[in-house]
Amino acid sequence: MTAGNPFGAPYPLVNVDGRLVGRGEAALDVHAHVVSYGTGTFEGIRAYWNPRHEQLYLGEAIGHFERLDRSARILGLPLPFSVAELVELTRELLRANEVRGNAYVRPILLQSGAVLPVRMHDVDVRLSIAVTPLPGDYLATAGVRCMVSTWRRAPDVTTPNRAKVVGSYVGPALAKTEAVRSGFDEALMLTVDGYLAEATTANVLLRFGDRWCTPPGTDDILAGITRAQVMTLLAEGTGRSVAERRIHRSELYCADEILLCGTAATIVSVVEVDGRAVGGGSVGAAGRQLRDDLWAVNTREDDRHPEWVTPVYEEG
Ligand code: PMP
Predict the structure, then answer these.
(1) Domain 144-298 belongs to what topology?
(2) In sequence order, which residues have a C-beta less than 8 Å from that of residue 216 and are 6 or more positions away?
(3) Is any ligand 1 atom within 6 A of the Cβ of residue 94?
(4) What is the pLDDT of residues 17-56, one digit of tens each?
(5) From the CB of 179, is ligand 1 less than 6 Å away?
(6) Structural domain boundaries of the chain?
(7) pLDDT tens digits for 75-100?
(8) 234 C-alpha to ligand 1 centroid (Å)
(9) pTM for the whole structure
């Protein structure tokens, strides 16, 4: 395993354009358009293994494939399957690989044609779905120390932020490396105007007393599916909705609790920003509770929101 990589060795079978093939056969040509230009869009979906139920559950598979469909429309790429078909192909793939452990599913729609001109039209497109074990934590559940990055989120007028675009991850990758090389765990990225946007692969929520807030979709975030789930759980738990509003950098230094949330990250607490302790400087009670609740929902140990979860193996 590469240092700092929580993923295991990928499973051997991959779905390419609806057909199960070995990983070798799924390999891309070095001349594939996406390799040079990042012209593709992808998703990341968690599969949660519940050993007590001997069942694997896909988290928000429908929501993720609906977002892939929107991303494809934004990029003008044809998505060859419906959302329901994509969920079915993913279930089949997980069964074919006999996945019985926590895993991460990576659907990707990309320009695979060996075409050199830069464009979004008249290049062959391929859809693949691959699976990788994700046995441990993606970000430390004991809490992460963040820096505000010198790299800003690319504004929507340069790269569409509502689409999860392959090439748009260079900025977050630079921000992550800057943070790690500077002795932090993760980066918080601002908009070009200096408002809080998000972490490198996770959205951000802040608590001030009993009020929660999060940057709005118009502040160059990828509006996460986990963010929506957390907002729902908080609204149900507190009876008060989470405010979507612009957030100043200085608010990061006086919040009582800050959470990062994303599919891979799940929900983790930020315990420090730019050397200043958040709340008590340790994982906050609300963050811990939300993390446990969402995990329990995703493994069907908690019967709230069954619509968020799709079982992979036949039930009963
Ligand atoms: N922002 C970015 C840039 C991301 O890559 C992700 C991970 N997909 C998120 C936010 C969180 O989104 P989700 O909860 O849908 O995984």
Answers:
(1) D-amino Acid Aminotransferase; Chain A, domain 2 (3.20.10)
(2) 244, 245, 246
(3) no
(4) 999 999 999 999 999 999 999 999 999 999 999 999 999 9
(5) no
(6) 13-133, 144-298
(7) 999 999 999 999 999 999 999 999 99
(8) 19
(9) 0.97
Q: How are beta strands 125-133 and 186-190 bridged, if at all?
A: unpaired
Largest Cα separation within the chain, whole Å, is 55
Tell me if 59 CB under 6 Å of ligand 1. no
Low-confidence ranges of the chain (pLDDT < 50): 1
CA atoms within 13 A on the CB side of 253: 8
**CATH fold for domain 13-133:** D-amino Acid Aminotransferase; Chain A, domain 1 (3.30.470)
**Residue of the nearest CA to atom 10 in ligand 1?**
202
Q: How confident is the model at residue 4, as a pLDDT? A: 87
CB 125 within 8 A of CB 112: yes
Q: What residue's CA is closest to ligand 1, atom 4?
A: 201
